[in-house]
Amino acid sequence: MAKAVHTMIxxxxxxxxxxxxxxxxxxxxxxxxxxxxxxxVFLQNPExxxxxxxxxxxxxxxPYNQGDAYGHLAFTVDDLDAEHTRFESENLAPAKKFxxxxxxxxxxxGFFVTDPDGYKIEMIERGGRFx
Amino acid sequence: MAKAVHTMIxxxxxxxxxxxxxxxxxxxxxxxxxxxxxxxVFLQNPExxxxxxxxxxxxxxxPYNQGDAYGHLAFTVDDLDAEHTRFESENLAPAKKFxxxxxxxxxxxGFFVTDPDGYKIEMIERGGRFx
Lengths: 131, 131
Hints:
With 131 residues, the first copy, chain A, is an alpha/beta fold.
């Protein structure tokens, strides 16, 4: 059966993106493949083998257009408050924390942060269905 | 440490999206949360606990704009040729198969397919770094 293994996003500045994902999410470069016209960078941390793939097109002269279709990539953390404080101290500009009541009677706490290319990342506190 | 748990995409027609992801990737609805203004649908299959979250905004009157930033979600399968044939028989309109040589000396075989909202899905044959 098909297994989800990575999601790919195009980024304008490789160094800025790699630095962001390292500091925000502890993701490290697991592979970096350099081609004539583009570079592929795979990022991973020890929590899961699911990877984030960055595509860096060498001829790209302007930031990409985010559109309004794609939403976000979500990560869970044990201590949301501590992570929010850490994001602030790392100058990652996290949005305000939210709490969302779900129709099944549970709730979820989280916050959003935006990467250097404008992609949204959702941070969720572990619990309920978000483990 | 932060763990990647889902990626969220906005879809225009919930039924069409759920049908596509069921037939193409064996993803089933793990949770469906209905709110006044939107519905959240989480999709998952037994291969991994990583989920695909669909957001269905009830006031959306036109398809979303895909932009050119977000790339794709990738899945691995054991038998790429058999999956390509199955996708054709399911009228999922898979693109032609490709083979990509990687700078580390390995190669990867795959094909792309497009979901009802225009999101690209990459199917990759298991092997090498793609497991």
